[in-house]
Amino acid sequence: RRGEMAKSTQLIDNEVFRAYATYTAIVLLKMMLMSLITAYFRITRKAFVNPEDTASFGKGESAKKYLRTDPDVERVRRGHLNDLENIVPFVGIGLLYALSGPELSTALLHFRIFTGARILHTLAYLIPLPQPGRGLSWAVGYSVTFSMAYKVLKTAWLL
Amino acid sequence: RRGEMAKSTQLIDNEVFRAYATYTAIVLLKMMLMSLITAYFRITRKAFVNPEDTASFGKGESAKKYLRTDPDVERVRRGHLNDLENIVPFVGIGLLYALSGPELSTALLHFRIFTGARILHTLAYLIPLPQPGRGLSWAVGYSVTFSMAYKVLKTAWLL
Amino acid sequence: RRGEMAKSTQLIDNEVFRAYATYTAIVLLKMMLMSLITAYFRITRKAFVNPEDTASFGKGESAKKYLRTDPDVERVRRGHLNDLENIVPFVGIGLLYALSGPELSTALLHFRIFTGARILHTLAYLIPLPQPGRGLSWAVGYSVTFSMAYKVLKTAWLL
């Protein structure tokens, strides 16, 4: 039993899995960064949503005016939600893809393009860049995940 | 080391894991489809949220009128968020469940019912079907994930 | 082949992985609970968003008045979205962390603090507690995930 246990933790020795772990950690940290940017804009723009968050600005009407939406805050939140919608499928399908035995070079290509596309997507959303900048970076990431899903279904198919 | 590396990639040879990979890829692709449906309704209903997305409709007031919410767009977006709220637990708990050594037939039953329920949920949301159609399909998927979580906690419990 | 297949399902025998499975199931079930709390408030506050959900209240104007937002419903929904934004990175990075060979005691420390922080975050959001209660519990969970990501990148780094 001990031998098996030792082995079962060695997934991280597999090079494709190491690449998956590296890029997944990077894109998830990038997604987590959106929380900090939201907080930054909420504080600098004084735009909050929960009454208890404005208590330090005083009581009653003087604090109530900070319960409002701000275009910059809403923009970051949309970028954050778009990350959830796209990074969740990457993390889930990417794990299955990494375990489906792809070539390291092919896997790296997928992971690198996806990660680059999502960083560009965030920049395009926050700067903002004119379209089709954001649309194209979204489509590239989407296509990479789709390509990995195809490989997973081809390899694992058991319905 | 090479032996271990080779072995560690063979998770995909396990039949329960292959079934998990197949159904997870399918439900994640279904979730990704919501992005395309949102884009379709935004373009056909001319209802956008980012000013840079309406630039092709001209400048100033003529483009500004397309920065609006549309009931069909909002409906797809609610369906998408509901997918995130329910498919994320399925993917996470389902992976642990697949590794907890269930019978293949039991695992397939869980995966198939969940996948069917989520496809029905999307149809019920988008058509829309009268209640309790959407509510029931949601509850079925929820119960399947709960049942898998019970098996995971029974097998793995280490607090 | 059968030998490998048997082995590949034994990941759940690894103690760190068992701890990961236990805490991941708990935080995902906690996140799923938010759906039930939302439904509870929607029904008791009679605040719905889909016209088909108010059909049981009658037709036309009498049902239309229940298509409205309610502060309590919106509060639970914000807590749910915050869970998605923070529990998704925990589940993804935590899996890689569990496979990166940490000490069991260190891993348990990470998992326990994260889980406790997220339960406190939910309580702070729903009661609600005065700030910085919610902010601190959010920051603690965020830091734990960051710490696990650091360990993953240090162990697996392959760019």
TrEMBL record, chains A, B, C:
Pfam families the record matches: MAPEG
Gene Ontology CC: endoplasmic reticulum membrane; mitochondrial outer membrane
Compartment(s) where it occurs, according to its Swiss-Prot or TrEMBL record: Endoplasmic reticulum membrane; Mitochondrion outer membrane
Family matches, as SUPFAM superfamilies: MAPEG domain-like
Known EC number: 2.5.1.18
Membrane topology: Multi-pass membrane protein
InterPro entries (UniProt xref): MAPEG-like_dom_sf (IPR023352), Membr-assoc_MAPEG (IPR001129), MGST1-like (IPR040162)
Reaction catalysis annotation: RX + glutathione = an S-substituted glutathione + a halide anion + H(+)
Transmembrane stretches, start-end: 20-41
Keywords: Acetylation, Endoplasmic reticulum, Membrane, Mitochondrion, Mitochondrion outer membrane, Transferase, Transmembrane, Transmembrane helix
GO molecular function terms attached to this record: glutathione transferase activity
Top-level taxon in the UniProt lineage: Eukaryota
Function according to Swiss-Prot or TrEMBL: Conjugation of reduced glutathione to a wide number of exogenous and endogenous hydrophobic electrophiles.
Subunit structure: Homotrimer; The trimer binds only one molecule of glutathione.
Family: Belongs to the MAPEG family.
Stated name of the protein: Microsomal glutathione S-transferase 1
